[in-house]
Amino acid sequence: AQTLLDTGNPTAELPVKLFNDIYSRIPGSALYTGSQGSFWVIPCDTVTNLEFSFAGVRYPIHPLDLSTIETFTLAGKEYTACISAFQSAEDEDFSTNGFDIALGDSFLRNVYSTFNFGDDLVNGPTSDSFIQLLPTLDHAKAITEVTTVRRQTLATFPPEIDPAKLVGMLSQADSEADAGATTTSPASDAYAPSPNHNTHTELTPTQIDVTVPGGDGQTASQDGTVVDKYGPIIVALLAANLLVLLVLVILGILSYMRRGSSSKKNGRRGVLDSKGAPVYAPVKGADAEEAQGFSQVNFERYGP
């Protein structure tokens, strides 16, 4: 399988089957397909553990990267729901572009990545391009962040609606629109959210694994031993480069200050010899001027 790591994609694009397989395993999720597209509605405080596996290395995804918060106005009331952040696409769309799935920022936020485009010199050495990935997510910490971050965010939104009830209300609105209804009638009691509704009071992790087989060496990631071996070295080199850059900047500032101080001192000392010591420069008198053919000025002409 070929995977595109797309830094220009804020989420991810998956084949329809894989898209549905992932979100259908999240407890409390519901699929909507209608006039507003196709998406899954999931509990906003889900702590499902989704992992992608490349060549045997697992890369977990933060639960908050699985959904986005959206608001809906139905029957004159506003509701909040969490919609699938990943998107689906037909298999033909992927085959045309030469890859099977596209992982954007929703995946890349959870890894440390390095991209090497290789060298292809006419009269020099060549090297193949490669990508290296290092997982960075602490799932235990991520569960805590779901509790704090997501719930604090939801406190500023309208009440959250149960995913199944939202899908039912949206489907009913679509049916009435298809029937030519000019206004949306109030939803039936079967779909009306209860005043004390709580979508997901108990945070129970669910494990979902997505395995992408390795290719012929031109895969999207290196195996785990390579990442484990060179990951710390890469970080150390980046830190060393930053330190060298900082030293060069400091030296440049000191050199500039030194030159400025020297220029000010030279301006106060006047005429200097080759060693920097002051030199006396005599002023020509009247005799010297007459010797050079100049006549003395008759100042009496300016008198009374």
Basic shape:
extended
Low confidence ranges: 181-202, 215-227, 268-272, 294-304
Average pLDDT score: 76
Distance between the first and last residues' Cα: 110 Å
The strands making up the biggest β-sheet line up spatially as 1-10-2-9
Percent range for β-strand residues: 15-25%
CATH fold title of the domain at 3-166: Cathepsin D, subunit A, domain 1
CATH architecture of the domain at 3-166: Beta Barrel
- DSSP strand tally: 15
**Helix percentage:** 25-40%
Structural class: alpha+beta
Reading the helices and strands in chain order gives EEHEEEEEEEHEHEEEEHHEHH
State the major sheet: 4 strands, mixed
Using the CA coordinates, give the radius of gyration.
37 Å
Number of helices: 7
Transmembrane segments: 230-256
Keywords: Membrane, Transmembrane, Transmembrane helix
Region (Disordered): 175-202
InterPro entries: PEPTIDASE_A1, Peptidase_aspartic_dom_sf
